[in-house]
Amino acid sequence: MKTNLSVLYFLKKPKKFEPGIACFIYLRITVDGKRAEMATNRTCNLERWNSKAGKVTGSRQDDKILNSYLEKVKAEVNALYTKLTLEEKEITAESLKNLFLGKEGKQYTILDALDIHNSRMRALVAKGEYAIGTMKRFEVLRRHLIAYLESSYGESDFKVKKIDYQFLEGFDFYLRTVKDNGNNTASKHLKNFGKIIRLCLNWKWIQHDPFRGYKLKTAPVHRDYLTPDELDRMVTLKITQEYLSKVLDFFLFSCFTGLSYIDVKHLKLTDIALGVDGEKWIFIHREKTDIRVAVPLLPIAEQILSKYADHPACVNEGRALPLTSNQKINEYLVDVAKLAGINKILGNRIAKRTFGTTVTLMNDVPIESVSKMLGHTNIRTTQLYAKILDDKVGRDMAGLRKKYTALTHTE
Fold this sequence. Notes:
Layout: E1 5-12, E2 23-31, E3 34-44, E4 49-50, E5 55-56, H1 61-86, H2 93-101, H3 110-126, H4 132-152, H5 165-177, H6 183-202, H7 228-236, H8 242-255, H9 261-265, E6 272-274, E7 280-285, E8 292-296, H10 299-307, H11 312-317, H12 326-340, H13 348-359, H14 367-374, H15 379-387, H16 390-405
Antiparallel strand pairs: 1-2, 2-3, 4-5, 6-7, 7-8
Helix pairs in contact: 1-2, 3-4, 3-6, 4-5, 5-6, 8-10, 8-12, 8-13, 14-15
């Protein structure tokens, strides 16, 4: 049965209206002369409202965002109307309104989506397809979202259909202020939340992406690494305490292989074999990305492996090195750094960057080779390492400077 549809916006004044006070924007759906109205949770000053066009007048960014939202809602109502028409279902203004508001069927929430995602990821962590650290980031995201909802909405959960630009903006502000997150940390949480939203879109729980038009900005990060002098100091450092000596060895092994803590922990003696050049190489799949990498074994790394060849964990379990917990290693590295006279917070990330900079790029290993050994899926990631090497830039330009030294320019 053919029906006639009209969708328009109008302003509703608050009970205690005074000039200058914003009015509520309402959507009116009319089907065959019968109306249904609903709040949009948006407001506008009376003098800035174009009643004929049903939108805000103005060219400011917030005006554009509001008008874009109103157009999107209107388009969704029309799309639902078309869908019901094609399905030959009875259409009323009220049923169309309820369908848009999601009052028909289960009302899925943020925690519904997060719990499904986290449960599946937890199972994949057990299979080694995700790192535990990745799982923990989504668990932290869940806690932050609950805290944000309780703080800003007085609720412990939230319907995914109600998530909009303002929700994201508020969550970002909450992370930066209440949780005291830095710019990049807050952006990472929102990026992870974006993954959850994309799942909701794929599952047809929502029809529009609240992240559309939302810009995530990350600030440049200073990336520490060991300079050639600092690396030499670490290599030649003599330590009498056995537990600190082990930690130094494990750190240096990552400096000369570029392997992460988890990759070294899972490294087996069977992962080391002869490469195309007849020398020993490490052949593994990176734990984090499952990317296959092949890393030639440098002499210092080989010496460290030989040192622990008779360790019970290596003999009985086939492990390459008897690593302790990452937390303990980082804790003891503080003492190692003091002994070496290095004023940097040492850890596996610095070790990996040292391999990607001081050990390889500064010794003219092509960036493409470095990228492959580090298991980077995009060479732009490796180029971030190259940007911090002023020393290499100086050495690269030395020959050019010498070439032009003999030339003179006279007027």
